[in-house]
Amino acid sequence: MPMSEDFALRLDAVLQPAVERFGTPFHIYDEQGIGETCAAFDTAFEGTPYREHFAVKALPNPIPLRLLAERGLGFDCSSLPELALAAKAGAVGHDICFTSNNTSSAELAAALALGALINVDDVTVFDKLVAIGDVPDTLCFRVHPGIAGSLVGESYLGNPDSAKFGVPADQLIGVCARARRHGVRHFGLHMMLGSGFLSGQPFLRSLDLLLEQAARLHESSGITVEFVNLGGGIGIPYRPDEPVFDLAGLGMAIGDKLSSWARRHGLPRPTVLFESGRYVTGPHGVLVTRVLNRMSKGREYVGVDAGMSALMRPGMYAAYHHVTVPGGAGRPHEIVDVVGSLCENNDKFAQQREIPATAEGDLVLIHDTGAHALSMGFNYNGRLRPQELLLRADGSVERIRRAEAESDYFATLDFPPLRLSPSELSVGAA
């Protein structure tokens, strides 16, 4: 949806000087707005023990991550570089939640070295921890939702039959019993049913399913689940007519469910963890780009100096991102496709969208790029990813990532020669 009025006012005050100084295209993130969303989490879950582990994949830049750490957020990581980014932002121990799938021993070893809270996605992950010889005393187990997950519909995580994430419920008691024999004393459960939800119902459904498994674990083996991780997936209203997620309502409903469950089972309320990324930073970013060409060929096209290398969600998911034209008020409107320069017809930020008429050189703003934008970029066609800027709360603008250069594109072609001779290959085959 359109950026908030406050963000729009702050951006308008710096837009022209920033364009003149830094050039286009660039993503710019709003420090004040991000901070306000962090505060909203604290308010929504006041009275309910909780921790938000920001999903590093959403905005993998150490400067915004450091701002989030200063506000008390932890980090959700799923790879070696994301672990390194979290550590660079100042996270230690259980500030880091390592939630991966198809996980390697090297990744587990790195997470263990940082003291991260490891989220076991499959029995084979626990087997690897045993093989490493370093099973921590606290583990979280991701639970496959099974057919119960279909009650909230299919998502990008896959339908219940094809979802690759989590330990099936019929394996959970066995692997947790093994974990306790290997010294695990503190247990958590995790479930994530999907992404981009604008209703709290899927999260309450996840909580119900996790609490059901927590009761089963306690009844079967005396294990007490100390925390439940509801994953990420809180959505933002990309379209102007979509509702804003009711975070306060979710916080109240979760608190009520936990209290009721604890009374019914005579067990302590588990702490609630989240791994939100999009909700925390998504609405607080804008891609600023400039019109390169106006083209007419069956449709009217506005060609801009950014493309899928800067934001691939529209091309990959046919996702909607709001588009506005600074200074466009009072101009006649037209219906256009807003496109980049890739040799792919899905390199389009908007299709048949009504916006104010533009000319070469005009600025165009693409909204809600504070999450899953630059981080999903790629270099097909030799197109390079743009710079990132931060609009500080004091009104200053800071470059926090330079644009990629040709030297970056060719960097992996600079390496020491390495070649196996025919004799070495024959030895290996033997």
Quick take:
The chain has 13 helices and 17 strands.
Note down, in words, how this protein is organized:
- Helix content is 33%, strand content 22%.
- The protein has helices spanning 5-22, 31-44, 62-70, 80-88, 105-113, 123-132, 169-181, 201-221, 247-265, 278-281, 313-317, 406-409, 422-429, and strands at residues 26-30, 50-55, 74-77, 96-99, 117-120, 138-142, 186-190, 225-229, 271-274, 285-297, 299-304, 323-324, 333-339, 348-356, 363-367, 387-391, 397-401.
- With 430 residues, the protein is α/β, with parallel strands linked by helices.
- The strands form two sheets. Strands 1, 10, 11, 12, 13, 14, 15, 16 and 17 form a nine-stranded mixed beta sheet that branches. It has an eight-stranded parallel barrel with strand order 2-3-4-5-6-7-8-9, surrounded by six helices.
- The mean pLDDT is 94.
- Helix 2 (31-44) packs parallel to helix 9 (247-265) and helix 8 runs parallel beside helix 9 (247-265).
- The longest helix is centred in the middle third of the chain and has 21 residues, at 201-221.
- The chain has two domains: 31-281, Alanine racemase (TIM Barrel), CATH 3.20.20.10; 283-403, Lyase, Ornithine Decarboxylase, Chain A, domain 1 (Beta Barrel), CATH 2.40.37.
- The chain has 13 helices and 17 strands.
